Amino acid sequence: MNQNALFDADSPLELADQGCFFVGGRYVEHAGKRSMQGQMFVQYQVPRRSSHRCPIVMIHGGGQTAANFLGTPDGRRGWADYFVAQGFSVYVVDQPGRGRSGYFPGYGTSAHRDADTIAARFTAPERECLYPQARLHTQWPGSGVPDDPDYDQFYASQVASMDDIASLEAMMREAGAALLERIGPAILLTHSQGGPFGWTIADARPHLVRGILAIEPNGAPVHEVRFTGAPDWFEDDVVGRPWGITRGPLAFEPPPESAHDLRFARQESADAPGLTRCWLQAGEARKLKNLAGIPILIVTAEASYHAPYDHCTSAFLRQAGVAHQFVRLPDVGINGNGHMMMLEKNNLVIARFLQDWVGRNVPDVVGARGA
Fold it and tell me: Which of 11, 78, 173, 367 has the most neighbouring CB atoms within 10 Å?
């Protein structure tokens, strides 16, 4: 029996409550008609027996929904049910403008997510090897390409996303703050595109964020990275995060008037072979005062496209005075994972690692006040 099966068998799912609600959102006018934008759907489960009074809020990535956390494409337990079974209240969200959070004209979305491109990025990167670590990918169930049943289940979950990520980030900051004000102090578990949303929600409500589990948060700092394959592997793309790790403002000290006041410089050489050169603050670094003191874990998989650059997000935070822990999964004996690790064969092994980290680093404070 594998480790995932052991975790399932030892932890039946017993609920005291479950439900859903919406937070955030405001009425806007489009073509003479009113509709709502920015509202966020929230689904929650409360275990019958609690082991930690601080709930976990799970925030998915780009083109995804809360379905990422509800189960795996091959029918195994997902992270949401795992943590509920371990005694945590869990809240999963659909980002504004997608999934159950609703879509109306005016959002501006990318409607098409090519199946082969998604496979190369998320489920079978070893086939194209556009970055050095891709060849190490082994944990996706099935072949990871279209017409494989497990891949088809995953691809069926893909949805259109807003093109204007800066506006989405602002919506998530507002909706995330509203959620925390409703449920009380919580742990944020973010993935990919949801990573900067964790930074900005914590920046807005630092007293209500008890910890951040940043699973391959969207990066690298400042510039996007384009993967070119061997021999050079990487090149800088457009400025994606003008505030370093976010598209919108963060509370730096001393405070800049705008993102233009932040100065960045690129490393002369990479920290190691197979890694990108980081963009960091130039000169005396401004500090991210609202993120300092929050327990933060950044997790990076062995074979993900994040493996070449997540260390840069870690370096940026450390330079800005934000103590945290950066863990590459192979360094703790967890190998072969790609970016969608919550869906892969050893997903509950990773969940157990996250649970243990929370147990060691996040105080068991009074959390949710109920939905």
Answer: 173
Q: Which residue has the tokens 């940026």?
A: 316
Question: In Å, what is the CA distance from 86 to each residue of 42, 81, 349, 354?
Answer: 20, 8, 13, 12
- Name which of 247, 254, 263, 250 is nearest 291 in CA terms: 250
Domain made up of 3-361: CATH architecture? 3-Layer(aba) Sandwich (3.40)
What CA dihedral angle connects 176, 182, 185 and 188, to 10 degrees? -30
CA of residue 35 relative to chain centroid, distance: 28
Residues 328 and 293: beta-carbon distance below 8 Å: no
pLDDT tens-digit series, residues 334-363: 999 999 999 999 999 999 999 999 999 998
Query: Cα 171 to the chain's mean position, in Å?
Result: 16
- What contacts 236, CB < 8 A, 6 or more positions away? 223, 224, 225, 226, 266
Cβ atoms of 36 and 26 within 8 Å: the answer is yes
Calculate Rg over the CA atoms of the chain.
Answer: 20
Cα separation, 100 vs 26, in Å, equals 16
Catalytic residue IDs: 192
Q: What is the pLDDT of residues 263-278, one digit of tens each?
A: 999 999 999 999 999 9
Is there a cis peptide before residue 220, judged by omega within 30 degrees of 0?
Answer: yes
Burial of 50 (0-12, 13-18, 19+ CB in 10 A): middle
- Residue 118: which of 163, 164, 151 has the closest Cα? 151
Handedness of CA 328, 204, 369, 102 (dihedral sign): negative
How many residues can be counted in the chain? 371
